Amino acid sequence: MRKLQTTLLFLIYLGTSALSPTGHAQAFSLTGQIVEAGSGEPLVGAYVYPLANPGQVQTTDPNGQFTLELTTPDSLRVSYLGYVTLTQWISGARDSLLLSLRPTAAASLEGVTVRAAKIAYGELASTRINQLDVYLNPAAKADPLLAVNSLPAATNPDETANVSLRGSPSEATGIFLNDVPIRSAVRIDQSNGVGQFSIFGQIPLRDVRVYSANPPVNFSQSSAGAVALYTSPELPNSTTYGLSLNLAGFGLAHARPIGQKSGLRAFLNFSNLAAFRGINATGLPELQASRAIDAALQFVHQTGDDAHLQVFYLGFDERYRFTTQTTYYEGEFSQHKPRHLGIVNWTRKRGNWTWTLNQSVDWEHADFSLGNIATSPRRRSVHTAHHGRLERPGFTFQHGTLLNAYDDKVFGTFPLQDHRIAPEDEFGSYRTQTANQVLETYVYGQWRLGERWLWGAGAKLLRRLNTGVSRPVLQSTLRYRPGEHHRFNLGGGYFSQLLSPGPEVRDWQWLNLRQLVLEYQYARDNWTVNAATYAKREQYGVLDDVGVRGAEASVQYRDGSWMGWLSGALVRSRELTSSAPTARDLPWLVRAQLQWKNPDGWTLGVAGNFRRGSFFLPVIGTTPIPGTAGWQSPILGGPAAGRRYPDYARVDASLSRVIIIGKSQLILYANVNNLLNRENIRAYRYDPSFSERNAEVYSRRLVFFGGVWRR
Question: What are the distances in angstroms from CA 497 to CA 161, 386, 445, 473, 475?
Fold first, then answer.
C-alpha cells in the first residue's frame, strides 16, 4: 500500500501523450519501426507523435512498427520508457523509416530500461520482466518482487513480497541487487500488518531477471531460484526535478550529471498514512498510525569506455502501530525499523575479459512489541566478491570467489506462560548472538553448439568457515531451438545453501536441493506460450524433508494497445515423512491480467489471482488451562485430519493518464486493490474457551490516488 505512493515515480516514464486528439488532414503517410540502438531489438509500445499536433500520438506494435498520417512536414518525436527521446524532421512520405533509440540512465524520475545486463548465464535465463509491466501491473503496486509473484512460476500463498518459486520456501530464493545478495528483501509496511513489500519499490531499476529454477552459480546463497535486479551504471544525461503528491505523503527526486564522467541521482520520500486511513476507514480498521522516511543516493563515475564505478545507498526509517488480536490477548502491535544498505560495484574490461569487484554492507535495527513480548534484532551482513568473465564467440567462461559474513544479535522478552501475554503478565528476557561466514568459489562455462544448441554447466564449493563444513553445487542447463518460434530448456543439478532465519525457517541450517526442470516456449507474432514441468527434493538440516512436483502453463497476447495473459499452475509440495502438504501445496492456481492503452494517454489495467485455499491443521479438541477462568489449550489434528481454507480470489484494477504541459509531464492515477472486496481467509482465531471462531482475512478493498509532476 505504501508502495503505491511511489508508483508514479516510475510511471512518469511511460512516455509522452496529449490531453485530447485533434482532427487532421490526409496529406501524406509515414510508416516506420522503432528499435533499440546497438541490439536492433524492436521497442513495443513506444510513443510516436508530430510536435505540431501531439494529440495525434501512436504507439508501436509488437514489431516496433507504427503508421502516422501527417498534414504538413513536421518534427517527429519518439519517446519510450528508459530511452533518450528522439526528435527528427520529416519532410514527406516515408514507408520504411527506421529510428533507433539510445538507452538512457535510470533515475528516480528518469526512464527505466528493459535492456538486459550482459551476464554469462543470461541466454539461459527463464524469464525477463519488462519494466513497463512491473509499473503498470495492478497487482504489483510498482514493486518488482510483487510483479515476480504474479508470474506462473511464483507459488507464494500469501500477499507478501517474499518470493517462493515452484513450491520451494522463500528462503531458498536468492534476491540480488547489482549481483549482491540481499538478506531480508522485504519491509513490513502494509498498514494493517498483514502484508509486506520489498525494499526495491522506489529504487530506479534497469533490468529484472527471474531464474525460476537452476540459479546461476555466480549468485551467492541461492538454491531453488533467483531474482536479479540491476540499477543503471550509465550517467544521467540531463538535470531533472520531480514532485509526487498522493494520499500517503509526498516525495522529491533529483538527477544531474557532474562534469563529463560522473552523475548523481537522489530521492527523498515522506509518508504519513492519516489521509489514506481516512479514505479507507473500513478497509483499514486495525491501523492506528504509520509514518516513514525513505532516501536513496546513487553516484556513478566512468573512467572511459573500459571501467566504471557505482556507489549506491538506500536507507529508510519506518514506524507503525496497529491493533491485533490473539486467542488470549487483544492489544497494539508496534514496530520501529531503520535500515541502511550500501553497495559498491567496480567493473573493468580488458580485451575479452571483464573484471568485477562487489562490496556491500547491510545494517538492520528493529524493535517489535506486543503485550509482554518484545523482540529487538540487530543484524549486519557483509558481502565481498570478485568475478572474472571471458567472452569469445560461442564460448563464455566465468569464475569467482565470494564471502558472506553475518552477525546477528537478538534480545527481548517472552511470556513465562504461552497464554499470558498481557503487559502486566510475568515475562522473561533473552539475548542471543550468532556469527556465520560462508566462503564460495565457483567456475562456469557456456558453449554454443551450432545454431540450435546452447549448453551451460557450473560447479561451486561452499564452506562454512565458523564450523568447517563444506557443501557442493553442481548444475547443468541445455537449451534447444528447433526453429524460429520454439525453445526448450532442460536443467538440473544439486544445490546447497546455508539458510538464514526467515518466514518459514527459524534456525540457521543447510538446505540440500536436487531439482530437474523442463521448460518450453513458443513465440510468434503477438502470441507467446510458455509451459514447464519440474521435480525437486529438499533436504533440510532441522526441518522435515520435502518433495515437490509441479507444472505450469501460460499464454500471452500483446499488440500496440492491448496486452493480456492467462496462466495456470499446480504444485504438489509434501513432507516426506508424514505426507502432509506444506503451505505451498496448491492443487490449482490461476492468474490473469488485461491491460489497455488508448491514444489519449489513458492506461487501464485489471489483474486477477485465484487459487485453492491453503492447507491447515484443525483444532480437534481442547484441554483446560489450570488457574484460568475456562481458558482452553488446543489439540491439533494430524495430517489426515487436515483441511483447507476457502479458495482465494482477488481482483485489482488501476487507471492512469499521462499529460504533457509544455516541457513538463504530469501523471494522474488511481488504484483499487481487492476490487470486489472479497474476504480471503488467511487464518482462524478462537476465543479463550475455543467455543467461538472468527476468520482473519487478507487485505480488504483499498483505494489510492495521486499525481506526479516532472520537469
Answer: 21, 19, 21, 9, 14
